[in-house]
Amino acid sequence: MNLLKYVQIFSLIVTLILFSNCGSNETDPTGMGIDEPTIDPMISDLDDDGIINEADSCETTPSGAIVDAYGCRIINEYDSNYFLVWQDEFSDEGALDITKWHHQIIPPNNGSWFNGEKQHYTDRITNSYVSDNVLIIKAIKESYEFDGSTQNYTSARLNSTFSFRYGRIDVRAKLPGSAGTWPAIWTLGTNINEIGNYFGSTYGNVGWPSCGEIDIMEQNGWDKTELIGHFHWGHTSTGEYASYGKTAIIEDAMDEFHIYSLEWTEGQLKVLLDNNVFLTMNNTASIPYDNPHYILLNIAMGGNLGGAIEADFSSDSMQVDYVRVYEME
């Protein structure tokens, strides 16, 4: 009888243990009886471009590439050898994207700007902002003091936080028409170390003109039918200043958007208006166009190229639809 009693008790204990395990959330330590999850190849993203394989027409896109809705790299509309690497389409209303643009506001010339410019640049939203998917850089007549220096005009001077060496830039823009305005779309070498610019001394400290300057678009303040493309540099051996430029005719720069472009390769530099080349220069060892550059957008007032400002000037603006940078593979 005692033996039977012990067997009954043992059976009851085993039954209770088994019943308890059936309701447990603990993982089976042996892993037996559990199916491993499977990855559906149709919903995975093998090239990690944000487009699932089922919708991806280009499944071997290089890592980090900018792609379209089909997972393919975006090519330049004028030259299929160039692929998009950086852009701002200005799709967010209000303040600029500070991850893409830096406001350069500190006057580098003892409280003023070079070339006799008559404005202060600010980081205020009244001077640079996005409206209806367009960047507005606005020059305004107003008294403005910065660090003890007063000017009678304000504007904005933007530095891209992106730099590149060789490639193509396309900027679609509409220009100001008022006398005395000096709009510019241009680049400088990241090694300039100009006061207040985005890159500082990160890439060097050679100053201007040894850093190299590329003027993709400038207009003087007295003839708004003339477009200027220009290169400024210091000889790589002697440091001696040199420049080369040309002009193009443009009748409606203040009324219509046009595309202002640069093509820059190891062997040549070209400046284009609506994809028509009007300035070409060979890239040789004696000129410093083998280092990274960054983009600048601004309107200056008066100065060497702005000239006399009309007496009744109140404000005017440059409107930028997009800025796109492309590189070859």
Describe the structure.
The protein is mainly β. The protein has two domains: 38-73, no CATH class; 77-328, Jelly Rolls (Sandwich), CATH 2.60.120. Helices cover 8% and strands 39% of the residues. The protein has two helices and 17 strands. The protein has helices at residues 2-22, 303-306; strands spanning 82-88, 101-103, 119-121, 128-131, 134-146, 149-155, 157-164, 167-174, 181-189, 213-218, 226-234, 241-249, 258-264, 268-273, 276-282, 293-301, 315-328. Strands 1, 3, 4, 5, 6, 8, 13, 14, 15 and 17 form a ten-stranded mixed β-sheet that branches. It has a seven-stranded antiparallel β-sheet with strand order 2-7-16-9-10-11-12. A hairpin with a 2-residue loop joins strand 5 and strand 6 (149-155). The N and C termini lie far apart (90 Å). 35% of the residues are buried.
Identify the CATH architecture of the largest domain: Sandwich
**Largest sheet at a glance?**
10 strands, mixed
> Using only CA atoms, what is the Rg?
30 Å
Intertermini distance: 90 Å
Structural class: mainly beta
- CATH fold-type name of the largest domain: Jelly Rolls
The averaged pLDDT comes out at 90
Number of strands: 17
Tally of helical runs: 2
Which of globular, elongated, flat, extended, rod-shaped describes the shape?
Answer: globular
Give the C-level CATH assignment of the largest domain. Answer: Mainly Beta
Multimeric organization: single chain
